[in-house]
From TrEMBL:
Residues 76-134 form the Transcobalamin-like C-terminal domain. This is DUF4430 domain-containing protein. It holds the Pfam family DUF4430. It comes from Lacrimispora xylanolytica.
């Protein structure tokens, strides 16, 4: 005898709500949290040829893109989306577009890759950021 248990659609709805609630809790615990107050940060730009530019600023900004926009000598641009914010492709006229150049601007925090993009990266006092022109490896460049 083969018995099948029919689950109520209401039970499926409750399960979906529980999963969404769990995802909301995870996001709340792991989202970027900016530091309030004045912060002193440094921003370096390392170009393909190894030339390095250094910027030292004091800011009240909460996120890195806000701080960058307060530096007139540092021109950062790219494509923007609501989901991911600014995808940096050009810094001070130097383009690194993966689709076209097989290179990208890596964003580092204290020498380590950032967990967030430039728009969502919270800043804290005495942090050091680096935009590093980074060519893709040889395998990725092969057609």
């Amino acid at each position: 005898m083969n018995k099948h248990i029919k689950l109520s659609p209401l039970l499926g709805g409750f399960a979906a709500i529980a999963v969404l609630a769990l995802l909301l809790v995870i996001y709340t615990l792991t989202r970027p949290v900016p530091m309030a107050g004045t912060k002193n940060i440094s921003i370096d730009v390392v170009y393909e040829n190894g030339v390095k530019e250094h910027y030292q600023i004091t800011t009240e900004a909460h996120f890195l893109l806000e701080a960058i926009s307060s530096i007139p000598e540092l021109k950062v641009s790219g494509t923007s989306s609501d989901e991911f914010g600014l995808m940096v492709t050009t810094i001070n006229g130097t383009r690194a577009d993966y689709q076209k150049d097989h290179a990208y601007w890596a964003l580092l925090l204290n020498g380590e890759p950032c967990s967030y993009g430039v728009s969502q990266q919270p800043i804290k006092d005495k942090e050091a950021y680096t935009f590093q022109y980074t060519p893709a490896n040889e395998e990725a460049q092969k057609p």
